Amino acid sequence: MKTVRVKIDPADASSLASGWIDPEGVDATTEEDIARQAAADESEAMQDAAKFARRVRKRLGLSQAEFSARIDVPLETIRNWEQGKRSPTGAAKALLKVLDKAPEAALAALH
Hints:
It is a single chain. By secondary structure, the chain is mainly alpha-helical. The chain has a single domain (31-110), classed as lambda repressor-like DNA-binding domains (434 Repressor (Amino-terminal Domain)). Helices cover 65% and strands 0% of the residues. The protein is built from 6 helices and no strands. Helix 3 (64-71) packs across helix 4 and helix 5 (90-101) packs across helix 6. The longest helix has 30 residues, at 31-60. The radius of gyration is 22 Å and the shape is elongated. The relative contact order is 0.09.
């Protein structure tokens, strides 16, 4: 992939590349359009988190019940993560990242 460096001076309109946005389209965007897109983005992010949680568990070769017991998280929580109903946050998110990168060490530390 080719990298192109561009210097932009916000005070100088001629330094801004034309055609990057559609000013009429931006002006025509309503608050409802923005809210709808934000909801779609949130839904997509939840599905990404669900795929990540499922992938980590499957890489460990554990069922949902086994994974739940190993990381001491309720089975219903695991199911909610994997179905995209809830997203892991805080310590749970950090734990999944550690389990993804260093599964043996993480599991050993948990027991």
